[in-house]
């Protein structure tokens, strides 16, 4: 309920918005009638002067409509617009200190009183508090009545219409205040009567309380028994939770506090009860992970072992080296074959573990999430799908659920419940709430992001409709206003979205370069930078154990796009080579997502230098899989730099074989299956050289350039190349 001071404040606001505004409308009308104002507005000199002022008020289209001229009424004009028009069009002489300035206390001209009304309106429109004491109300009432009286007596009608309206408004407010006091007194009397009645029924209440206490005691015994049972279950579990896993579950529980059960979540929950392999698909930010986390936490409460995993090798190792109870273990794996887009390297990883996973799923549950665009990619064909003549996967009860299809997608009512769950105290208009609930993309994620302290003063509707520009602006602002926070985000980007103090302190060279890039002192400590990420938790980042991650893939995509577009050269120089493969492109294409960092021609040489450098290291397969290596301009620059390195000392790495972690049995299994790819062929070799991989992936121009240079060297190298080429041909035939 509003306080007396709150009502005093609103009374002053109403006096300024109604009688004062109506008075200024009449002042303007007396000097410039509505039917004549368009003549002044369209005068070139006056238009140049007045149009910028209207733009600041965002009201230029009222007086300068797209077609025709203004032919309306002043009745809808607010006080700010009226002041601009009176000052610039009415021809009223300046007051002593001039328009726009506080008038002299002894100046009683119309201009001075109009100025005073404007200043009062600005004071109460932008006031940091909404309270006004009786003494302050009395003072402001006197000021407002004085201004109205001074202006109204200069009008031709010589009436007191507006002064009377203001006095009536203040009088009505006083009557309402008296009525409120009477109501308050009545309420106090009612409370006293009710308390008296309560005393008369005290004995009966006492008996009810005794009965309730007895029931509570019984419930407490049941709760203790349930607690002992749960404790016993935990003690008998074979796989104790690590501290890191406990941190993950803590993060899940924090998010789960705002979870609501939707149609999609209910369907997934029922399917998981009767199926061991469930893949939940949908758009980015649609709540896939939240649904699986909620369900996994419920299983965990009932004594199940829940294992969050990040690779198929983790699942294999857990099954191979740890004991777990049959039908009591759940693995949760988000984005197994790519986060932002289909990742051939990740997809290829699951193949060698296909057989062991088929066995494991007969004894445990495997819950996966995958973006709809990735699972529907033709290259993902065969991912956990039954092969012809093989019913093993069907036995394991594979189910795919798209939570964005017509049966599962969020309804408008579910969106409203979800929004109010996150913002119970937010007083949105029905129009704004309905506008927000029209949004489908990222809706559950945007509810989470808006919950953070940094978004509480933002325009909800704007953020839900345009989340990317809002996030981009927020991140760009850190670069200007808070360079240490921006530095923390850059460290997170260049650490492959997995940042901890130990790694930052160990990689001093990269940290120094990032400090220089962010224009910070070289003496800035890693601890200082990491401390700046803590306030961003729940908005841009999350903290699990001693590590920081981006809050969601969507946030990471926006952040990397902002940094990569602003600093393409530094991105090329410092980012992980797998990041360059997934997020950087040199040409536009239909398949490019909106967060792909597009390089200009001037940076292609930098990219080629980095790729050429990595070609001699352990990540040469990542280089050869990079789509940029198919671009004609990149190939041309690559060939030129190869020729510049034609000294055999600098080119020796191209034929140097390196050890690959592939078992013979895995290779034999791949040969027996129809999904055998070039990447699997490369993985089938225990050792491999960059040149052999270039040839395998049909980088013909680059392969030919290397081979031509090597053939022109001494006979020793010709023998190496001949033997190497013969070996490659044999492998192709095989």
Automatic annotation (TrEMBL):
<feature type="domain" description="Novel STAND NTPase 3">
    <location>
        <begin position="259"/>
        <end position="423"/>
    </location>
</feature>
<feature type="domain" description="DZIP3-like HEPN">
    <location>
        <begin position="37"/>
        <end position="148"/>
    </location>
</feature>
<dbReference type="InterPro" id="IPR041249">
    <property type="entry name" value="HEPN_DZIP3"/>
</dbReference>
<dbReference type="Pfam" id="PF20720">
    <property type="entry name" value="nSTAND3"/>
</dbReference>
<protein>
    <submittedName>
        <fullName>Uncharacterized protein LOC111111005</fullName>
    </submittedName>
</protein>
<dbReference type="InterPro" id="IPR027417">
    <property type="entry name" value="P-loop_NTPase"/>
</dbReference>
<dbReference type="InterPro" id="IPR049050">
    <property type="entry name" value="nSTAND3"/>
</dbReference>
<dbReference type="Pfam" id="PF18738">
    <property type="entry name" value="HEPN_DZIP3"/>
</dbReference>
